[in-house]
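Re: that backbone. Tokens:
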């Protein structure tokens, strides 16, 4: 795990409570702060518009709704993010395929590897 992720503030966009808790625990173990979480695209968009985040983990499917609008908002605010989905990379819209991708279920080591390459700004 790259120590550069330590201390950074993350937004977690995930609609499954157990998965959200797992991700929050992993991020805490890495020394990251989960600054906020959202279960819907609308909640995520409101948070992105009103708060600052260093990075985000984004589920591609939020209760049957694609999260492309959230990905666009994160990009517009310069927030690097990792897609976390039960689907395949082909499920990610072509314009977002340059972002890191984790397929659920993922391991602690998988997340550590993606965080190490997330290009977070130095604190």
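Recovered sequence:
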């Amino acid at each position: 795990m790259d120590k550069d992720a330590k201390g950074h503030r993350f937004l977690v966009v995930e609609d499954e409570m157990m998965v959200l808790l797992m991700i929050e625990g992993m991020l805490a173990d890495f020394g990251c702060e989960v600054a906020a979480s959202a279960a819907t695209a609308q909640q995520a968009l409101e948070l992105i518009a009103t708060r600052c985040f260093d990075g985000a983990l984004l589920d591609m499917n939020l209760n049957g709704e694609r999260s492309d609008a959230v990905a666009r908002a994160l990009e517009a605010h310069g927030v690097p993010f990792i897609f976390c989905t039960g689907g395949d990379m082909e499920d990610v819209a072509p314009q977002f395929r340059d972002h890191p991708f984790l397929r659920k279920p993922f391991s602690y080591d998988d997340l550590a590897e993606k965080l190490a390459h997330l290009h977070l700004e130095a604190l």
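The longest strand covers residues 33-38. The mean pLDDT is 92.
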